[in-house]
Task: inverse folding
């Protein structure tokens, strides 16, 4: 099942249980503090083992660095760590 919804990433995440989030060249336009805030919100909405895909020039910011495992560094694919 795929569910598409228009949403501002600066607003609270409206739902959870997400398996994949793709931010291609989105975070580069934000300060590092804002990147961290957005990534922490995404982390909270992702399922354990869910994937985050970033743009080629983007990376994890702040506390988010410790919450994801790199799956493919050149392609900027990360997986939410399990608990």
Result:
């Amino acid at each position: 099942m795929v569910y598409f919804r228009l949403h501002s990433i600066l607003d609270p995440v409206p739902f959870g249980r997400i398996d994949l989030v793709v931010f291609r060249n989105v975070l580069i336009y934000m300060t590092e503090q804002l990147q961290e805030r957005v990534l922490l919100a995404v982390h909270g909405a992702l399922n354990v083992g869910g994937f985050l895909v970033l743009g080629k020039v983007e990376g994890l910011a702040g506390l988010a660095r410790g919450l994801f495992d790199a799956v493919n560094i050149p392609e900027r694919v990360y997986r939410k760590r399990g608990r």
Summary: Helices lie at 32-45.
